[in-house]
Amino acid sequence: MADEKILKNPSLLASIRQFKGEDPEDFFKTLEATAPLGQWSPEQLKSIVVLRLEGRARRFYEASLIGQDLTYEQLKSKLLSQFKTEENFASNFSQFSMAVQLPSEKVRDFETRIEGLALNSFGEKAVGKNEMSTKLREKMVLSQFMAGLQPRIRAQMIIENPKSFSAVMELGERIETVQFMLTPNVNVLNVKESHSEKVLEAVRASGETVEKTLDLLCRQLDSLNSRLDKIEREKKGATFSI
């Protein structure tokens, strides 16, 4: 029994890094690959793990595991479960918080992608456990959606300042349609005469969309004019006060 407590080949400990919670699978892979060379027993592996704990990994061990009669495999399982979950969340949340609309991506498609990333980061399970309220989740999704929109769309969104996600989506698609209509399409210029009736039919069918988009443009111009008038009044007021 005494011999089992004596660690053979202690110099190999230098190859086992400190574990602060990052990349737990790599830590245990290195440890278990070194164990046969050091002729270390499972009980000794457990002691080495505890010895190498630092930072948040040490705090987790002292708060939740110390005093428990755990085998090496049980300790390994608990550390993997704790820190692998944290790593997955960090990776998913990073993707969510850095998501931006691609140049060729439609507003509706970007919204679907944002929702998917949000579900991976803080999905239904987190909401169900009251770790995050549904209202807070929706607010975070809306905030990231607005922040990630293409600048030409986001700028007009800020002017209109929609209050709900449904209003944001409707406005975003209308802005997208306006910009598409105002962007020259060389393919349209090359339409043959035999297809002219189909083109006219498509234009008539889009009458409602055109009306909405023109209304949007008018309201945006009104908003800009109001802002310009306000700035002009403030300048005049500053001049008189001097």
UniProtKB/TrEMBL annotation:
UniProt-listed InterPro entries: Retrotrans_gag_dom
Residue stretches making up the Retrotransposon gag domain? 48-150
Pfam families reported in the protein's UniProt record: Retrotrans_gag
Spell out the PANTHER family in the cross-references: CCHC-TYPE DOMAIN-CONTAINING PROTEIN
The protein depicted here goes by the name: Retrotransposon gag domain-containing protein
Q: Which organism is it from?
A: Araneus ventricosus
